[in-house]
Write a structure and sequence with these properties.
Elements: E1 3-12, E2 15-16, H1 17-25, E3 32-33, H2 39-42, E4 46-47, H3 60-76, E5 85-91, H4 96-105, H5 117-123, E6 129-134, H6 139-152, E7 158-165, H7 169-177, E8 201-209, E9 223-232, H8 242-256, E10 265-267, H9 276-287, E11 296-298, H10 301-304, H11 311-325, E12 327-328, E13 345-346, E14 352-353, E15 358-365, E16 369-376
Parallel strand pairs: 5-6, 5-7, 10-11, 10-15, 11-13
Antiparallel strand pairs: 1-2, 1-8, 1-9, 3-4, 7-8, 9-16, 12-14, 15-16
Helix pairs in contact: 1-11, 3-5, 8-9
Length: about 375
């Protein structure tokens, strides 16, 4: 059973979801110099920061998340004090940066602050339960699946699915270790892609059942979530597995009751890494081999960086705009597609108007935790 997306909110290096959509349509790249961290020691000089004045503030991811949740609840016309509302927060790193600051600077930190629940309850007074899922880079995608399950089972009247991640020194150190030269920007699916860079971001959506009364005070929902396919192949700690990704895609189509040739647009995971891009491209080529002409393919990390566990909601927020405006944004940073992507219909250079009815959103994480969601206009 599909569920309705009553509202969708995101925050990236460009600002809110409207500002992000406008920037991505223009083909802008939000990369900038690395802040707060010792770039030389990390071998990472750039990132996609959410810009804030002054020195680094504590619990930045928590603040962005709370703002997105409050705004999503407001846009949905939802009062958690009058309805059974649950929040599911997907994140790759939780508030790991706060732990790093505590370890080095002794900045005060309570264990409860790592998991966002208190902040989410303050942002949405009356909310019953808030659970944090730390499930790598597909975390918010898994939260979408669980939120839909809860609504189908009648365990909630509405579910707030949210996600947030801020840069951490430990993740930057891992990225820098695997790059011979510091990466200047993310180039998804490019033959000369230099690697991934972290982005900072947060997002939140409100899911409600079909026919839910009073959700948006008479206003239409922004989209319909048909289903999310999941897989956990656990083949390798970090390397993607084509079979696991393929299972997630077919699971999504099966749950949604749709065929591959009905998908109009794919918002790909597209990390710009050596292994992810050819693997994802090969799977997309297989899944849509019989589709004519096949879906348009875009990816947003070249514009906003890799926002980790929040990245599925970043793509979803832009997919909502794409459904509304019937235009597909370009793959920012893609100049020459890699060999394994031959035949895929990438949106290159400029946004492309076209029929956008059914959108696939890919999200893959370390350990083979994969989530693929299907979204359509409501």
């Amino acid at each position: 059973m599909s569920v309705l997306v009553a509202s969708s909110v995101a925050r990236t290096c460009f600002g809110d979801d409207a500002a992000t959509w406008a920037a991505v349509l223009r083909g802008e790249c939000g990369v900038g110099g690395l802040r707060y961290f010792p770039a030389g020691q990390l071998n990472v000089r750039c990132g996609y920061h959410i810009s804030e004045p002054g020195p680094e503030r504590p619990l930045r991811a928590t603040a962005w998340l709370a703002g997105c949740v409050a705004e999503a609840v407001r846009r949905a016309g939802l009062d958690p004090r009058r309805r059974r509302v649950v929040a599911l927060v997907g994140t790759g790193l939780r508030e790991l940066r706060a732990v790093e600051r505590w370890a080095v600077d002794g900045e005060p930190l309570r264990a409860e602050q790592l998991h966002f629940a208190d902040a989410v309850r303050r942002a949405a007074p009356g909310l019953e339960v808030a659970v944090t899922l730390s499930n790598a880079c597909s975390a918010a995608g898994h939260a979408l699946a669980l939120g839909q399950d809860m609504l189908e089972l009648g365990e909630a009247d509405a579910v707030v699915v949210a996600g947030a991640d801020a840069m951490t020194e430990s993740m930057l150190a891992m990225i820098g270790r695997f790059a011979e030269e510091p990466t200047d920007r993310v180039r998804p699916f490019d033959a000369a892609r230099p690697g991934v860079l972290l982005g900072e971001g947060a997002g939140a959506v409100v899911l409600v059942p079909e026919g839910a009364p009073g959700g948006r005070a008479g206003r239409a929902p922004v989209a319909r979530l048909l289903g999310t396919g999941l897989s956990c192949d656990a083949r390798h700690e970090t390397a993607p597995d084509a079979a696991g990704i393929r299972r997630a895609v077919w699971d999504a189509l099966d749950r949604a009751g749709r065929r591959a040739d009905e998908v109009d647009v794919v918002f790909a995971h597209g990390t710009g890494t050596e292994l992810n891009d050819p693997t994802e491209a090969a799977v997309l080529g297989e899944v849509f081999a019989a589709a004519d002409p096949g879906p348009l393919v875009t990816a947003v990390k070249g514009a906003v960086g890799h926002t980790s566990g929040a990245s599925p909601l970043t793509s979803l927020a832009l997919a909502v705009h794409s459904l509304r405006e019937q235009v597909v944004p370009p793959v920012v940073g893609l100049r020459r597609p890699l060999e394994q992507a031959a035949g895929l219909r990438f949106v290159l250079g400029a946004a492309l108007p076209g029929r956008v009815r059914l959108v696939q959103i890919d999200a893959f994480g370390f350990g083979g935790v994969n989530a693929v969601s299907l979204l359509e206009a409501a």
